[in-house]
Structures are given as C-alpha cells and as structure tokens.
Amino acid sequence: MTETLLIAGASVLGAGGADILVEDGVITGIGTGLSRDGARVIDADGLVALPGLVDLHTHLREPGYEASETILTGTRAAAAGGFTAVFAMPNTSPVADSAGVVEQELALAEAAGYATVQPIGAVTVGQKGERLAELGAMAGSRAKVRVFSDDGFCVFDPLIMRRALEYVKSFGGVIAQHAQDPRLTEGAQMNEGVVSAELGLAGWPAVAEESIIARDVLLAEHVGSRLHVCHLSTAGSVDIIRWAKKRGIQVTAEVTPHHLLLTDELVRGYDARYKVNPPLRREEDVLAVREGLADGTIDVVATDHAPHPGESKACEWQAAANGMVGLESALRVVHQSMVQTGLLEWDDVARVMSSAPARIGMLDGHGEPLEVGRPANITLYDSAVAGTFTQADLHGRSENSPYLGRELPGRVEWTIHNGVVTLAEGAVAEELVR
Ligand SMILES: [Zn+2]
Question: Are 333 and 258 in contact (CB under 8 A)?
C-alpha cells in the first residue's frame, strides 16, 4: 500500500490539463474533475507531466567509492532531477563483473527507495579488457542485467568486442561502448583543436571516438547483435550512426546534456569542473549532436553523472579528475538546449529521457506512457520558471557541477516513484511514505 495521490490539473505531455489518480502505486485514472476521498492532492496546475525519467548512464560509486557518492545519495540526486530509474555503471570497487556485486547493488537500491537502480555489468573481468566477465551469470541473476559496459574504458580488443556482442545475443542484451581509442588519446587533456593548440594542452581527437564507433557498428552488423554507443560527442560520430542506422545495423546512441550545451571554449578558464571524458567539443559538434538528437539518429539523453570529491577537482587542470555530476540539472539543460531552441517538443523529451532508455536497457515498469494501469512513475516539471543553478540544487555527495552559478530554465517540482513521492515541490522527501 502506498498513498493515494490526486495530481490535479497537470499538462499531460503538453496536451492540456488533466487529473491523474494514483492508487497502490498504479495510475488508476486520467481525466478532468477526478476526485478521491482521503487522497493527497498535488496541485499540478501548469506543470508538464512526463513519464518518470530514466538515466541509461549513471555512476553511483558504491561499492568502493562512497566518499564520492553512494546508492542512497545518488538516487536522491536522481529524484531531485526527476528520475525514477537509473542504470548504474560497473566501475565500482569491486567492479560489477559478477552476479554477487550486481545483486548487492540491487539490494542497496531497494533499501534506499528513491529510484529504481538497474545495474550494468562489466564486459570484461575487472574492466581490464582481457577476458569476458560472467555475462550469463549476471543476466541470470536477480539483477537481470541486460546492458554491459566497461565504461570509463573502451573495449579496445576487437576480438573481445566481437565475442561480447555474440554472447549477449542469446538473451537480447546490448554492449554499451565507451568509444575511445586509448592510443590516440594517451595523455589527452581536452578536445584536440584550435583551443587545445592555443593552450598547449594535449588533445583528444574526434577520430579517437569515431574510429571505434565505425569499427563497432561493423562488428555489430557482422554478428547481428546490438550495440549502444555511450556519450557520443562529435559531428563525425553522428554521421557514422546515421549511416549505420540507414544500413539496418542494430545500433543506438546517447548524448549527454553537457555535450548539448557546453563547448571547449570553457577550458580557457582552466576550471576543472569543465574537465570531462569525452571532452567538451567545438560549437560545430554541439550543433551536430543537437541535430542528431532531433532527427532520431541519437536515441537517448544520458547524464554520465560522475561524482568526484572536491579535492579531485580543486587542483590544476592536468591533475583533475574527469567527470561532472548531472542528474539534478539534466532536464533543465535539455529544456534549454533542445526545447527552447525548437528542436524537441515535450513528447520528444519523454522519448529521449524516458521511453527510449528504458526500451534499450530492457527495463520493465519505466518509460511507459502515462495511462491507466501503468506503474505510477511520474515527473512534474515547471517549464515557465527559470533560476540560477546553485549548491542547493545538488542532492548527491559531490558538487562537481559545471552549471553552478548558471541561469537555467525550469524546475523539477515533483517526482513520483512507483506511487511514492520522492520529490515534493522541489524538495527531496526526507522520509518516503510507502
Ligand atoms: Zn564513459
């Protein structure tokens, strides 16, 4: 039993006002003039109702790096950003390369209760790129892993990549590749281009991403398996995915909010909050990934939420860690970069931030349209306001956000996870009423 909720006057995918009734964690009514005795009434007048957001690419850091984030704090950040489910990358300590670790993550997430956590399994043992991890055991475990990735590292050996793609076919799994040729990016500090030349920093060339994506789509075609490309960041990568999809190759791709908004010009200030892998690219790349997301070449916006403690960022550029937190700001950045520019409507946002990631990751109960009979995973967003993004907007354990001090549109007001209110009027619920 959970609370009965009456969401009054929400704009369901911008289509006009409607009430949504939630009972026992399920949507039991949608229409106008609904009422229910004893229900907690949520005034959603003027708010956009979206299916609960799903992040295909989150680093929760637990087990092993609890100083940066835990499953509890990471899912709290997720709730603050409107997410009801996150896929957790396996670069923990120990690495999530066995049934035992992914089941441990699942148990911690169930106890936290702020969001559904779907573990991603490592492709190779210890993410060392040498031999395949126990993919079948993770798939068959209680965590039902369907997405495998060595994210943080590229599966560089083509034979191991081929075998991984072949192996996951038996249960419809997918390999999510962090596309980065390690040799072409040795010592890289930022995007290779005009700015890196001026600053004298070692560059991370676009071809180091594009050559791996080109190889991998051909491998996926050759073995007839599913490939997902993580955090695609260059114009050339968009072209390759467009070509591969036209050819019928089973490939999907994601882009991060920061690659939709920020450019390598920001590196000039040497503020390590802008250091990320893959790096911030040129303006031309930002425009190309926006276009690729708008025309469906890119399927998903995924945060690559990567928490780091202060000392990993408060140092000189070369020594700083790569990565940004992104869960709390993702929807607002997509609002600014894609909706305010006229490239996406709110139903497209529901597709790229909820239904597509759930479908690619084969996660049931999430990413479904707001309809009677569906699990009540709902995000209510105020698109009419704007405000400065501050520390108060962050609810995880780390504060390495590139948006601090930046004006962003919108505000996530309510998040409802399986009928439980996890965010209420912009405040993360201290206690979850179940
Ligand atoms: Zn990555």
Answer: yes
What's the CA gap between 253 and 286, in Å, rounded? 15
Q: Respond yes or no: is residue 382 known to be catalytic.
A: no
| Type and span of the H or E element at 216 | helix 206-223
Instruction: Report how far residue 316's alpha carbon sits from residue 88's, in angstroms, rounded to the nearest whole number.
Output: 29
* 395 CA from centroid of ligand 1 (Å): 22
What letter does residue 355 receive in the DSSP assignment?
A: I
Segment 168-190, tens digit of pLDDT: 999 999 999 999 999 999 999 99
pTM: 0.97
Q: Which of 299, 304, 382, 393 is catalytic?
A: 304
Task: Answer whether 90's CB lies under 8 Å from 123's CB.
Answer: no
Burial class (CB in 10 A: 0-12, 13-18, 19+), 208: buried
117-139: pLDDT as tens digits: 999 999 999 999 999 999 999 99
Centre of ligand 1 to C-alpha 14, Å, is: 33
Tally of CB atoms within 10 A around 203: 21
Structure-token pair, residue 410: 């919108």
Calculate the average pLDDT of the chain.
96
* 23's tokens: 């009972």
pLDDT of residue 14: 52
Asked whether the CA dihedral 158, 164, 167, 168 is positive or negative, the reply is: negative
Q: For residues 382, 327, 364 and 251, what is the CA-based torsion angle, rounded to 10 degrees?
A: 110
Find the 34 Cα to ligand 1 centroid distance in Å.
45
Q: How far is the CA of 179 from the centre of ligand 1 (A)?
A: 8
